[in-house]
C-alpha cells in the first residue's frame, strides 16, 4: 500500500532529493560565472605567450589554485547537468548505469585536471616521463 502523494499549493512535492541537487547546481553555476570570466581573461593574457611565460603563470599559487577550483566546480556542474539530462530523456531501465558512468567520467576528469595542474604548478613536466 503506497502513501498518497503530498502536495503544497497544488504542486506535488518531490519525495527524493531533487531540490538539494537543484540548489547545488545553481551554486556551482554561481561560482562558475566569475571563474569563467577569470579563465577567459587569463586565456587572452596568455594568448601568444611563450612556453616560459605560461609555465610561470601556472607556477603562481593563486592561478593554479583558481584553475583547479574551476576544473572541479565545472566537473561537478557538468555531472549534475548530465544527470538531469539522463533522467529526463533516457528510459528507466538504463538510467542508473548511465548516471554512474557519467559521474565516474566527470570524477576522473576532475582528478586528472587537478593532477596535471598541480604538476605544472610544481614545475614538473605536464605528462609523466615516457608518455
From TrEMBL:
Record SUPFAM superfamilies: Fumarate reductase respiratory complex transmembrane subunits
Family annotation (InterPro entries): SQR/QFR_C/D
Keyword annotations from UniProtKB, A to Z: Membrane, Transmembrane, Transmembrane helix
Superkingdom as given in the UniProt entry: Bacteria
Gene3D superfamilies xref list: Fumarate reductase/succinate dehydrogenase, transmembrane subunit
Transmembrane segments: 27-58, 64-86, 98-122
Name of the protein in question: Succinate dehydrogenase
Amino acid at each position: 500500500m503506497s502513501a498518497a502523494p503530498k502536495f503544497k499549493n497544488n504542486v506535488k512535492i518531490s519525495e527524493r532529493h531533487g531540490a538539494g541537487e537543484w540548489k547545488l547546481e545553481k551554486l556551482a553555476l554561481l561560482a562558475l560565472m566569475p571563474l569563467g570570466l577569470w579563465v577567459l581573461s587569463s586565456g587572452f593574457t596568455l594568448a601568444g605567450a611563450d612556453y616560459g611565460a605560461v609555465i610561470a603563470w601556472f607556477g603562481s599559487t593563486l592561478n593554479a589554485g583558481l584553475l583547479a577550483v574551476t576544473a572541479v566546480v565545472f566537473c561537478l556542474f557538468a555531472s549534475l547537468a548530465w544527470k538531469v539530462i539522463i533522467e529526463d530523456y533516457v528510459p528507466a531501465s538504463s538510467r542508473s548505469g548511465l548516471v554512474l558512468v557519467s559521474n565516474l567520467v566527470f570524477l576522473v576528469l576532475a582528478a586528472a585536471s587537478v593532477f596535471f595542474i598541480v604538476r605544472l604548478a610544481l614545475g614538473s613536466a605536464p605528462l609523466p616521463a615516457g608518455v
